[in-house]
Amino acid sequence: MPCSVLLPVYSGDDSGLLNEALKSLAQQTMMPAEVILVNDGPLTDLQEKMIHYHECQLPIRRCGNDSNQGLASALNLGLKHCSYKYVVRMDADDMCAPNRIERQLEFMYANPEIDIAGSFAREVNRNGELGATRRVPLEHAAIISMLWTCPLLHPTVIFRKQLIESLGGYDNSLRRRQDYELWFRCARHGATFANIPQVLLYYRFDWSMLRKQTPRLAFQQGRVGYRGASALGLAYWKRVACFAPFLRSMLPGRFEHWAYQLMRRFGPRS
Fold this sequence. Notes:
By secondary structure, this protein is an alpha/beta fold. It is about 40% helix and about 20% strand. It has one domain: Alpha-Beta Complex (Spore Coat Polysaccharide Biosynthesis Protein SpsA, Chain A), CATH 3.90.550. Strands 1, 2, 3, 4, 5, 6, 7, 8 and 9 form a 9-stranded mixed beta sheet that branches. α1 packs parallel to α2 (about 45-55). The longest helix has 17 residues, at about 215-230. It is globular, with a radius of gyration of 18 Å. The two termini are about 30 Å apart.
């Protein structure tokens, strides 16, 4: 049951965390057939050193952009180089559980009607300290109903390459939350979703990540959600609620953290 792992890297990624990400792939109970590592622009010398070290342990195939083009462009480029039916997504600072690839491939083969499958994830900070477990809806109907909240954790997913390519891949115009837009597009075209109720990824998270969500980017995310939820005919309150992250991003630092914690209590990724 071969698969491709799609892993974009850019110079801003922490080389130590990249090392841990690649190490977690090298320790899988079922090795991927290939790791498509996409350079989104030139990498640092230390990043190159880490990658060269793991090339002895992993079937790494490299491609890249001459300059930083953003995540969507890197993913689309990497997708073209993926050789296999199933593609496993991963980010350069996360870690896979040892059985991730084996479990997700078994799930996809046992459920041929599923096009995209994610999983639970455990938060981990930059110091390696474990945090909360992010649990998400499992069944297709529940995922569609909650799609406005993005109940699929992007770096946990495995998907059918043919489907994503047939829909044009990721939207290059979006600097963030490209997955959010893609899931809405997949849903409109009849894709079937699922989540596996196991922690298969250790998701790097700390409060500094909230700072990346500027009001401008949060408003863009709200527009994507509103349009997607409207196209699926979701309730009007769900369409409007897509702008909740934008309102949160307008708050001062500690109040933004408080609002984030409050929203997590009611969200599907709690």
